[in-house]
Amino acid sequence: MLPERNIGFVIVVNALANFVTATPDLILQHAVNDKYGIPAPTNTVYFPDATQAVSQAELDALAGIYAAEHGYHRVVANPESLTLFASAVHSNMLLRTDGWFTPADDAPITGMLFTNLAGRTTLVWRTAGIGFATTNVLGERFDSAPISAAWSNRLEKLWFALDESPVSYYPYLGAAPLLTFTTNDGVLLVESDYISGSCVLSPTNDDTAFVCGLMSEVDSAVQVFTSNTFEYLRFAGYTWQPEESIPELTPGVPTSGTNMSSHFNWYRADLPIGTFTLTCTDANIRMIIYEDLDDVPVIAIGSYTFALTAPGTVYVALGTLSPSVPYELDAGRAPLLLDRAQATPSGMVLTWISQPGTNYAVAIATNLLDDPAFVALPGDVPAAAGISTTWTAAPSASPSAFYRVQSPP
Q: What are the domain boundaries of the chain?
């Protein structure tokens, strides 16, 4: 906004992305040119390069952690200079005559300033462009305290978003519905794709930790509460379920439940190598299936067949928009199933659902009334990687032929 020019504008975006920092400045330049005929400057702005004296004690006092919008920045004091560890490392930052620290360049175009906003020590960053300079708050000074045993015991554990919508676009973006706590440089952090990164936390007790930093736009605190002896969380508008409370599916043993529109029903299955089929009896329920929590999930209704080439854990969230839906869920080994048969000039092409590491036998019959009707073709057919195996039988001399695929007893 330029109130002295009676010009202002608002930018509205509907995506989880930061708007380009320089865009508002460019818009204002064009607006001033259109309304007043004042052209945009074409020269690059440079900051003062003359230095001023600063004591080592003053530099040491500025060093520390600065809580940012996501994570934190770290300032380290060196003899006569500072180093900023942010998205990039800015070293040999010298104090200039305008009070800013800038790199030891002849024409510095970036700089940082330590100031006070509402009684809080704040780190500010400045970047010069063509005709303008942008200034933004990087972080707020944060002095960490020792992390209690209660919060230390929560480190590296997983919590899953419980009250997510089954039609949320987060899964399509590859945002994992997970929350975890980590620590670095003595700082406690909460991390989740649902907040696009991490936030610095300052616990006030064993059940509440406030988010720090003037730039934070997420919930003000993480709250811990106990349900059925398990620790659940409230944060960022969601309730988070601990991994250890998620029911485990036993392959081949159906699990019954009722899915509510207000939250997900989470399940996990620790599975060996093999091909498996997840089935849910109600078509009003979406299965959101994570074969790998770092990958985009598969969303299926009714059933979904998949193969594991190594033992692993599969997570599935059931979601519905209906008020209450009973269901049965199963994660059993996929049965041998002839999926497709196609006659081609080179022979009959057969495709069947297979199990990794299994050799299959193919038999042929030209008359089902014969006894025995089927004759095994020579050689075994090893299962291919993935959920199915495709094999081509040589053309039959008979005008009709019947094929049978068998797995070993």
A: 3-36, 56-142, 149-244, 246-333, 337-406
Q: How far is residue 298 from each of residues 53, 226, 262, 305, 329, measured CA to CA in Å?
A: 60, 31, 21, 11, 16
CATH number of this structure's domain 337-406: 2.60.40
Classified as helix, coil or strand, 94 is strand
| Token pair for 407 | 């797995």
Of 155, 153, 160, 175, residue with least CA distance to 246: 160
pLDDT in tens, 170-215: 888 888 999 999 999 999 999 999 888 899 999 999 999 999 987 7
Helices then strands (H, E): number in the chain? 4, 31
> Strand runs (DSSP E) across 154-249, as ranges?
159-161, 178-184, 187-192, 197-203, 208-211, 221-227, 230-235, 238-242
Options 1.10.10.10, 2.40.170.20, 3.40.800.20, 2.60.120.380; which CATH number does 246-333 get? 2.60.120.380
Q: Which residues, listed in sequence order, are joined to residue 305 by a DSSP beta bridge?
A: 277
Residue 61 has phi, psi (to 5 degrees) of -70, -25
Provide the β-strand partners of residue 241: 160
